[in-house]
Amino acid sequence: MFMKTCILQRHLSVLSTLSLLAATALVASAVEQGGRGQLSSSDYKFATAAAEGGQLEVDLGNLASQKASNPQVQQFARQMVQDHSKANDQLKAIATKNDATLPVESEKDQKEMDRLNKLSGAEFDKTYMNLMIRDHKSDLKDFQRESRSSDNTELRTYAGQTASVIQDHLNMAENIAGQLKNTSTAPK
Description:
Ferritin; 188 residues; single chain; mainly alpha
């Protein structure tokens, strides 16, 4: 009986050690993945940047809808809030389905908000629209690339559909910025 108890205790000890090692490996894997869940590292990098950028577009749009002096800029800003909120929700759903955790906002975004918040009038309008052109050009390239190369079918579809919306935003931003430029250089 004593021998059986000793053998049983050794088995339990071995099982406990194996369980501990397995749990440690799972935790290490989760830490290594950094919240990416089932997304590949490249897809997670894209999703993280898209989430941060999308939230910045919403935040800047809310700011611009209040501070812009030009009605076209105000309307554009409201459109940014609407479209990017929708895209953010779609991206969050894909991330959730894939057990990935996305960031809410970055420190860089807060600096951009602070910089714009100090401006007013026509200077705000021009700076905001130029920022929208720069950001949408960069985002368009990223979304088009992801729509061709993503390992995740849903993320690939999302990127392709959102790329066309970003292209529309870019066209609108360039049009409005051109009108703002022409307005400020017109003789008085």
